[in-house]
Amino acid sequence: NQPLCLSPSPSTKSSLPASYSNGQSKVAAWLQESEEMDKCTEELARCQSSLIELSKLLQSLEGLQRTQSAPNFTDIVSICLDYVRRDRRRSYGNPPVDHITTFLSLQVPSLPVSASMSPTRLHSSNPNLCAEQVDFQTPVSRQIPDNMECGGDYIKLQEDFCLIAQKVHSMLKSAFNTVAMEKEKIKSVLSDQEQSERPAQVITLRKSLSQALSQNAELKTRLGRIHSESVLSEQTISVNLITSPDEGGEQRGIPLTQQTSNESRLSMSESVSEFFDAQEVLLSASSSENEASDDESYVSDVSDNISEDNASVTDNVSRQMPNGDLAGSAFRNGRRPCLPAPSPDCSNINLWNILRNNIGKDLSKVSMPVELNEPLNTLQHMCEELEYTELLDRAADTEDPYERMAIMAAFVISGYSSTYYRAGSKPFNPLLGETYECIREDKGMCFIAEQVSHHPPISACHADSNKFTFLQDVRWKNKFWGKSMEILPIGTVNVILPSFGDHYEWNKVTTCVHNILSGRRWIEHYGEITVRNTKSSACICKLTFVKGNYWSSNVNEVQGFVMDQEGKVVRRLFGKWHEGLYCGVPPSARCIWRPGSMPTDYELYYGFTRFAIELNELCPEMQDLLPPTDARFRPDQRHLEEGNVEMAASEKQRIEDMQRTRRKWQDENDIKHEPRFFKKVVDANQRERWVTNNTYWELRKSPGFINMENPNLW
């Protein structure tokens, strides 16, 4: 029985939140000085004394109960009544025997007299007994004077026990109320303490923000210096070919001046984190070195690595060209960061009048208003799938076949990421014989595409790099279902990694544009993709683009796995095709890929990514190198990009009429169109495919497309 005390103990102090550590001493001092708490302590002390007294009373009651017999009155009456009945049967007419008195005098000498044993009550419970027969009060009373005294003590102890218990209850209730009030006061004190600490926290946050701004300004200065050192002039740097007499006439190209890629020249208004995000993807091979460095050396390493990569990438392009050089082409020191004009307003176009007669039909044969187009065509869209070729470079350097397959899965998904903001417009349909060329010195890649068939529409492309080869031929079917439009791709995509002899192949999923006629349009991809290595059965990858709806939580969700040849899952993949892909199990999964940031005001410019903005750019030095069939020369597409919608609509109508006239003339003269740069082959599975005939880059070098006869498409 230890006395109760409410003074703050060490355990009480340690239980307080850490944020209130500065105010603990004040709270403790206040608790000690509080009159209410002293009063509560005194009441609890008195309550403890009363509890001790109650314990003693309880022990006395238990002692009396052990020494005093407490018979059951009901059993006594029952036994007496049995005696009376038996006696009446044996001696009928004889004087009655007072069995009750006899029994009580023998068996219950200590029974106290109570009202329950009155003659009246006994007579009323049994009418056969008269008052005289059960009058046993006098004999019993002569034998229990001592027991009466014991019963009185027992009752008195009970009354004292109840009184003290009520007093204890009252004191405990008062103490409880006091503690509750003091609890509210403590809350108030702690709240005031928190309010007083907030200005200090604000000062700390402002100081941290000031330091961050200072570091950002320093980083901006460093990046500006790196950029100025990498750019020698605003003029075009021509690549001259020099013949070395020591090498027997073998041509050797002068190294290109270091180029800065678009990824390393992000707008300074963007966050520093985006800069490091780009570094994480582009320079994953050197991430272990960067982790061990401090902040300043880390930024320096990033800048140096980007510069070295750009210089090596430029040389890779020159080596990767089929003719061994860039054919006298020239490169600029930067690419445009924005389109010339924003997208036009399409709110006044009544699509229902155009589409109501084409429900369930292929829309590729339906002419649409030019306002619904974006200033890119399908050939350029195929090139846009190569925005994240650094994933292919990573795969080409990865020894583990399972990890290599997971990276390939990330590349497959990355090809859909640019479509997230593009549901409001459609690309131009390429004309038969239309081409597109793209040389990316920053990615070490050269790309060529051609429209090889018009009905059905088939587009073929081929891209080369020192680490991979990319090729695909895809035909498209568009179907309008009243509220939505489905785009059904038919064909396969192929990537070859020469370093391991791998040949990856996969199909494409269905694309659906919702709310065509009204509401906000949104795009969805759904279906299954199987990625196979046709040269090895070590593993296979399956990806599922989950079909949902605009409000569901799993919209744009992708799930997948990599299995070994025994069917065991060795890699689990999940993510969203517009946000990124992760490998593993949450929350410890690692990010394999995530898309880059969008440019400023992308909503006003067709939702284009930075890479898409650059695809239709035409600089003067490229005009004499490209064939006249290149999509950059298409007038309707160029007018739309420049914001001249009326001219774009007029040119689009004229170009489509020219194509119909050419097709009619070819049919009348039984002339079959032959693609210039691609040929049809039959693979081992008896499937027809379109592959490059390896003539584009040779003709580009000599004699040059400007010196050749070219078809007039527009």
From TrEMBL:
The lineage of its organism: Eukaryota, Metazoa, Chordata, Craniata, Vertebrata. It comes from the Eukaryota. GO terms for biological process: intermembrane lipid transfer. GO terms for cellular component: cytosol; nuclear membrane; perinuclear endoplasmic reticulum; plasma membrane. This is Oxysterol-binding protein. Belongs to the OSBP family. InterPro entries: OSBP_sf, Oxysterol-bd, Oxysterol-bd_CS. Residues 243-264 are annotated as: Disordered. One of its GO terms (molecular function) is cholesterol binding. Keywords: Lipid transport, Lipid-binding, Transport.
